[in-house]
Design a protein that fits this description.
mainly alpha; elongated
Length: 171
């Protein structure tokens, strides 16, 4: 019994850390959406050039720098508008769900599982199209977070059922 409690507590701490990271991710997405809504594509291209030109002069094959430059060149006003909308909505939904999970709202567990699974399937679709190793890593992390949410939800339901059974035995 005591060992089960410690296991639940350890998983719950991992769950809390994971959702805090997911909430931070959502806040960063909102901030990025704000930046993209203010800065025009040419300004972003200049900033990316400023960040990467030294590294590319040293190592023209630098993977990350080349990815950043390629992404900056793909930005157009239309893609920027989509990106702003996507980042704001995606980030706000994550922050809302994380806040609800943190406050132990019962509905937030299945809602988070559903919404984050949809986000994950979209990311996997994007990985299939882009073959992005970074997006693949984010997808694996998101899958782990979804698993942690599910495990925490199952643990809470088990504990509630056990308390309910204990109360029934008293009557």
């Amino acid at each position: 019994m005591e060992q089960e409690h410690h296991l639940f507590k350890s998983r719950h701490i991992a769950f809390q850390i994971a959702i805090l990271l997911k909430g931070l991710d959502g806040l960063l997405e909102i901030a990025a959406g704000l930046v993209f809504s203010i800065v025009r594509p040419e300004g972003i291209s200049r900033f990316v050039f400023f960040l990467t030109h030294g590294e590319l002069a040293e190592d023209p094959g630098d993977f990350l720098s080349n990815q950043l430059v390629a992404a900056a060149h793909l930005l157009t006003p239309g893609t920027e508008l989509f990106l702003v909308f996507y980042l704001f909505v995606h980030g706000a939904v994550k922050v809302f769900l994380v806040g609800s999970l943190w406050h132990n709202k019962a509905w937030a567990y299945p809602a988070s599982l559903g919404v984050l699974s949809v986000f994950l399937f979209y990311q996997i679709f994007r990985v299939a199209l882009s073959h992005s190793p970074l997006l693949l890593v984010f997808s694996v992390v998101d899958a782990v977070i979804i698993w942690l949410i599910w495990r925490d939800w199952q643990g809470i339901k088990r504990r509630l059922n056990k308390k309910s059974l204990d109360l029934q035995s008293l009557t």
